[in-house]
Amino acid sequence: MERAPSPELGTPNPKPKWSWRFRVPDGESVSFVDGGMGQQSFVAGKDFGDFVVWRHDGIPSYQLAVVVDDAAMRITEVVRGCDLLVSTARQQLLYRALGLTPPAFYHCRC
């Protein structure tokens, strides 16, 4: 993809001013069994909305980075705080979109 010329210099703009977002399937229930918190279910578009996967500065977002990194390293279990339960629902959608098998999750109680 070609970048638009910078008006000041007449050269390509090295930093785009846009981000890529993952469009969630509104109304779809995203469920998973958590080793620490039990059955979890979130509704896309209600509990969370579309989210950034590639930032405007050219760096992948946390959501995309952890999914790709865990898959590349063949991670089978993820342990983290309960504050990231909703992030897990987003990541479940990314795993599915990328055709990857998600690891088992265990969220510690807050």
How would you sum up this structure in a few lines?
The protein has two helices and six strands.
Description of the structure:
This protein has about 110 residues and is an alpha+beta fold. It is about 20% helix and about 25% strand. The protein is built from 2 helices and 6 strands, in the order ββββαβαβ. The protein has helices spanning about 60-70, 85-95, and strands spanning about 20, 30-35, 40-45, 50-55, 75-80, 105-110. The strands form 3 sheets. It has a two-stranded antiparallel sheet with strand order 1-4. It has a two-stranded antiparallel sheet with strand order 2-3. The longest helix is centred in the C-terminal third of the chain and has 13 residues, at about 85-95. The termini are far apart. The mean pLDDT is about 90.
Round the mean pLDDT to the nearest integer and report it.
89
Proportion of residues in helical segments: 10-25%
Outline the biggest β-sheet: 2 strands, antiparallel
Span from first to last CA? Answer: 45 Å
- State the shape: globular
Low-confidence runs of at least 5 consecutive residues:
none
Q: What strand line-up does the widest sheet have? A: 1-4
**Strand and helix order:** EEEEHEHE
Return the structural class.
alpha+beta
